TrEMBL record:
Signal peptide: none annotated. One of its GO terms (biological process) is methionine biosynthetic process. The keyword Hydrolase applies. Pathway: One-carbon metabolism; tetrahydrofolate interconversion. Its EC number is 1.5.1.5, 3.5.4.9. Keywords: Amino-acid biosynthesis, Histidine biosynthesis, Hydrolase, Methionine biosynthesis, Multifunctional enzyme, NADP, One-carbon metabolism, Oxidoreductase, Purine biosynthesis. Gene3D superfamilies: Leucine Dehydrogenase, chain A, domain 1, NAD(P)-binding Rossmann-like Domain. This is Bifunctional protein FolD. GO terms for cellular component: cytosol. InterPro entries: Aminoacid_DH-like_N_sf, NAD(P)-bd_dom_sf, THF_DH/CycHdrlase, THF_DH/CycHdrlase_cat_dom, THF_DH/CycHdrlase_NAD-bd_dom.
Length: 291
């Protein structure tokens, strides 16, 4: 068997095309384009690439970017004040605080300063609570992007065994809840899971969101499983995920590449969340952006 590639890059490009077309029609009627404020503190080089990617994608589809880079010594109070200004700014539909923040800042407290209806990262307690309840709300971009990618390829989830390796608040936990909401039987695995391979071999849907190169070997994958690689590892040879791509491709039925899989969907989902927030603010009827 050779796994089919879940092509996040192409799907993301098509979604962006649909957003661009719709916004070209709607923004003049509303009288303004959607706005996304990105707050990036310090000079983490990985963040530089992500923030650049986000701003470029915003420009492509017709979303105005606000915010920018702030020095590493910016205080908690200054950042809270900045977020409050964006909360009130009528041109801003989404506010994103790029993580990680410098260690002396309290990122959770800052995230809770964002008004929930502009929380395009889905990390405010109110949006996390809605996720837990299964109510509509802004959803974290990477998990929502993964679900959109699986949905696009019509991967069945109901009744399937899903194993999520990793339990972060940014990816593992919310993705597990979304899979559960789609009627998968979900198991969370993590660094204290004793027999990881024994567990992952039972997975029809295997998600790795850890950040360790080579973590998922072919022996850990059930033949025919769907494998989603959320890992991001920078190596001398370039960007790689958690999954032994070549080995697992011979065992799985579907597999996401890194790059070109989940990362590309994350950015597209951020734009979708921003447009969703804009649409709600102006009571617009939103089309189904399906890619
Ligand atoms: N508040 C917050 N929200 C986030 O959503 C968030 C964050 N902080 N901090 C960092 C992580 C990471 N992240 C990625 C975004 C795009 C790619 C992406 O576009 N990846 C491309 C390749 C990029 C490259 O080549 O460097 C791909 O996989 O094809 C990856 C990872 C968002 N994150």
């Amino acid at each position: 068997m050779t796994a089919q590639i879940l092509d996040g890059k192409t799907l993301a490009q098509r979604l962006k095309g649909q957003l661009q077309t719709w916004l070209a029609e709607v923004s003049p009627q509303v009288g303004r384009p959607p706005g996304l404020a990105v707050i990036w503190v310090g000079d983490n080089p990985a963040s530089a690439a992500y923030v650049g990617q986000k701003q470029k994608s915003c420009a492509q589809v017709g979303i105005t970017s606000f915010g920018g880079q702030f020095p590493a010594h910016t205080s908690q109070g200054e950042l809270a004040h900045l977020i409050q200004q964006f909360n009130q700014d009528e041109r801003v539909d989404g506010i994103l605080v790029q993580l990680p923040l410098p260690a002396d800042l309290d990122s959770t407290k800052l995230l809770h300063t964002i008004t929930p209806d502009k929380d395009v990262d889905g990390l405010h307690l109110v949006n996390l609570g809605k996720l837990l309840r299964g109510e509509p709300g802004l959803q974290s971009c990477t998990p929502a992007g993964v679900m959109r990618l699986l949905g696009h390829y019509q991967i069945p989830l109901a009744g399937k065994q899903a194993v999520v390796v990793g339990r972060s608040i940014l990816v593992g936990k919310p993705l597990g809840l979304l899979l559960l909401a789609s009627d998968a039987t979900v198991t969370f695995a993590h660094s204290r899971t004793p027999d990881l391979a024994g567990l992952t071999r039972q997975a029809d849907i295997l998600i790795s969101a850890v950040g360790r190169q080579g973590l998922i070997t072919p022996q850990m994958v059930k033949p025919g499983a769907v494998v989603v690689d959320v890992g991001i590892n920078r190596t001398p040879a370039g960007l790689v995920g958690d999954v032994d791509f070549v080995g697992v491709q011979a065992v799985a039925s579907y597999l996401t590449p890194v790059p070109g899989g989940v990362g590309a969907m994350t950015v597209a989902q951020l734009l979708l969340n921003t447009v969703q927030s804009y649409g709600q603010r102006h009571e617009l009827v939103m089309p189904q952006f399906s890619g």
